[in-house]
Amino acid sequence: MNQTEPAGRLNSSISLSGLFSGDNRKPTIILLVTPFILTTFKYYGTRSFYLSDLASSFVLFGDVQLTAELYTFVSAFVLLGILPLLIITFLFKEPIASYGLQLGDWRFGLKAFLVLAPIMVAATYSSSTTPEIIAEYPLFKGAGASPQAFVTHALSYLLFYVGWETYFRGFMQFGLQKSLGDWNSILVQTVVSCLLHIGKPSGEIYGSIIGALVWGIVAFRAQSILLVILLHWLLGVSLDFFICFVN
After folding, report:
1. What distances in angstroms separate CA 194 from CA 204, 205, 227, one per listed residue?
2. Cα(60)–Cα(68) distance, integer angstroms
3. Of 56, 62, 147, 228, most Cβ neighbours within 10 A?
């Protein structure tokens, strides 16, 4: 065998022209922007950054903790939701419906919701008694001060889950489906979303793996992430409800 052949194949496979052309272009962009977007969110889009760097100069409603929560939710909505939609629309020039932002097979989605919702609520009830979880949630500790405060917290929380699911089950999973196949695209978004949970209680991290797999399957089967958004939101809100008003 000619010794120059492996080097030739390597040079061809890592050339920038090949990386950003044809069928390689979209998965390359998705996998390239993901570490930048998620690192930006992790370091500059969370309540810890707000509390350490912004709280002294920017407070809403005179409540630093509430502002910290809203800052996190809006950051997730913009960085994980709006930004990938802009990439899909203006860079990929594709409809957002092809990334799961559509009703899809709503009959299947509704059935999946009715089956999975009680399971998730039951799981959060048992988790709500864990000291590590109680220390972490709700993100706004004043959410349990009154029913009105909790409703405000729950509704604003939806911004976070719209952003999260748009990125992982939408932008990543649907975006990588053609190049990686169904299962590998599910597994890739599972790995990445799990890593973004690092620093959370260990039970939540392990739960995120199961959740990402289940929600990934549901998203592909329903060809929609809308019910997945509601399922994930229900998981977070029910956990906070049990912590605030039951346990």
Report:
1. 9, 6, 20
2. 9
3. 228
Q: Say which DSSP state 139 is in.
A: S
Q: What residue type is 211 in one-letter code?
A: G
State whether residue 39 is helix, strand or coil: helix
Q: How far is CA 123 from CA 1, 18, 66, 130, 143, in A?
A: 59, 46, 26, 12, 21
Alpha carbon distance 224, 86 (integer Å): 19
Whether the Cβ atoms of residue 40 and residue 167 lie closer than 8 Å to each other: no
Token couple for 44: 């500059």
Contact indicator for 165, 215 with CB cutoff of 8 Å: yes
pTM value > 0.90 = yes
Q: Is the peptide bond before 138 cis (omega within 30 degrees of 0)?
A: yes
Q: Report the interhelical angle of 202-222 vs 106-127 (nearest 10°).
A: 170
Residues 6+ apart with CB under 8 A from 67: 50, 55, 58, 59, 60, 61
> CA separation (Å) from 144 to 124, 150, 161, 239, 241?
16, 6, 20, 12, 8
Rounded Cα distance, 145 and 72, in Å? 20
pLDDT tens, residue by residue, 167-217: 999 999 999 999 999 999 999 999 999 999 999 999 999 999 999 999 999
| Residue-range domain boundaries for the chain | 22-246
**Which of 27, 28, 79 shows the shortest CA–CA distance to 185?**
27
